[in-house]
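User: Last request for today: this protein with adenosine-5'-diphosphate, please.
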Amino acid sequence: MSSQVLSVVLDAPLDTAFDYLWVARSETELAPQPGQLVLAPFGRRQTIGLVIAVKDSSEVEPGKLRELLQVRGQMPPLSDDWIALCRFAAEYYQRPLGEVALPSLPKGLRTESTVALDRALKKVAQAQPQPTTTPETSVQRPQLNPEQQTAVDAILNTEGYQAHLLFGVTGSGKTEVYLHATERVLQRERDADRRAQVLIMVPEINLTPQLEASVRARFPALQVVSLHSQLAEGERLRHWLAAHIGSADIVLGTRLAVLSSMPHLKMIIIDEEHDPSYKQQEGLRYSARDLAVWRAHQQQIPVVLGSATPSAESWLHVSTGRYQRLTLTQRAAKNAQLPKVRVIDTEINKAVDGFSPLLLAALKLRLERGEQSLLFLNRRGYAPVMHCDACGWISNCRRCTAFMVLHKPERRLRCHHCSLELRIPSACPTCGNVDLQPLGRGTQRVEEYLQQAFPQARVMRIDADSTRRKGSAQAAFDAVHRGDVDILLGTQMVAKGHDFQRLTLVGVINPDTALFSQDYLAGERLFAQLMQVAGRAGRAAQADVNHDGASQSEVLIQTRYPQHPLYQALLAHDYKGFADTMLAERRSANLPPYSFQALLRAEAKNLQLALDFLAQARTLMPHPGVSINDPVPMTITRVAGIERAQLLLESTSRAQLQAFLRPWMRALRSLKTRVNWMLEVDPIDI
Ligand code: ADP
Ligand code: ZN
Ligand code: ZN
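Assistant: Here's the final one, the structure of the complex with adenosine-5'-diphosphate:
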């Protein structure tokens, strides 16, 4: 019977592939191919591996090899393109291929038993829709406006790869462009008798139901599946398989969907491309947006990046001609207008309990008119810290360099960094004073105030605390859409993407802290957040919500720095002005996107150990074209009792940085150290 030597990668921190022997169990068993999953013995355990090559058996001594336990032949192999994508991600982010490829697969594929897989395959095969010849001509779709039409045509007119930056103000109908482009790409491929799939990515799980509903309504005859981390395991496996065997026409997902297997991929859409959620912040710290662009290039297909506030990188790519800019300048819905943005100078219009008289009056007016308001405060909990007036005690976390946050409804002090929870002390732990004070305010405190100030109003708070239960976020957003809420209050969760139809007032309570942050990305993020949240107002036709003669919807920003250029750009809805200034500043400071960065992080029980390790790493080898900064403690130095430090690497050449990282990583791996370390390429949190 035949046998073969296979090169297999495993989910292990080893930058090598392993050779295994495969022996046919019967005359008819087919030899495994690259891309197939196998069950392999590894040390004393068994693990799932991915075959990446069939070896010439003359190169190895088969006698010394361990034999594969199982080949998952019931599933088609992963394609060479998919392996190439994982390989690129592995090389670029400096991780072993196996640690990229295998964890990207649903858990049901990575277990020893094939019961779940066999069951899912059966279900997916049954779910195959009848092939339709003409897709759904009866479905209602709005007539595109000329700008939308131009955008769709431009996307369809490109041959092969092209990145399009769909730069459209909030409410300009970017979704409609995605849907039309999707429809036409699928139609075109079908007409040419080719199979086709489209990947649509959104930054936030809470946005998938809204988009999924639109997509399903538009394409009732197509198979649409979602992929995100909140799916139950069985569901995730079925959706993944539907994409992999090609029965799913449209895959809708969050960042993890970028590594899904889609053999007939013909277009990728990335909504809100600037959103930091596209960056994975643990494990393989990849940028799903960047990988998506790479994947589109590899497949020679168009990729559409949509945003009202594009990332600095994408804006730069437009100016150098790498991306094509498609602009939507107007709100799409009939008579809908951009809201009027105003700043409230809290030096003059003093805020009491977080609210200036102007903001209160505006809220009152909306309540009287029966319109919705949204209040944005990017800080959850009741108050960020508790404090004793008598002795100066403050609620420090004993395990972190951070405060314990007061959560009043839960009657807890909580550390948002290590999850330590304590009961709220009834008296000061140092002096016994029973009158402990909350300092500052978070969403819970604002909610409490609103309930007192407007007892008749229906107030809904949406933040990570109020939506812990599965499905609760969706229920809350549904209530807002139904009109069961007068005042919606929340963190950035409420700022993103939602198409609230009855909202005419947005109030921003205290955005100033980000203005003076050390983080060079803070300004860009704040601007995008405020533009997004402002964009939730006035999305419907004015006549639908306003009573006769009512003014247009408005956005009120409370600030002590009303003249700050960031707010001034916001008032003018001037992303372009803001972005051009930002890029000029980045260029002169040699910051991304004009330079490329990597960050080596070290963690240890003792800060000096971490710093020493980084100092050693810094002098390990010559680094032409790459500058390495001094090791420094991280801003939040201690988390859960572990001290953390970092080393920043910068280069004006991505290639030079990459060329240095590879051998450097190898050298680092061979160091003997008690320090826990990790490397991040293109960090966004430094
Ligand atoms: P964006 O994603 O750019 O913020 P949306 O895609 O959510 O905007 O669209 C905003 C609103 O405009 C939606 O209610 C949508 O139905 C409506 N809309 C989009 N395109 C058109 C059009 N061509 N004519 C009329 N209404 C439209
Ligand atoms: Zn005290
Ligand atoms: Zn803590």
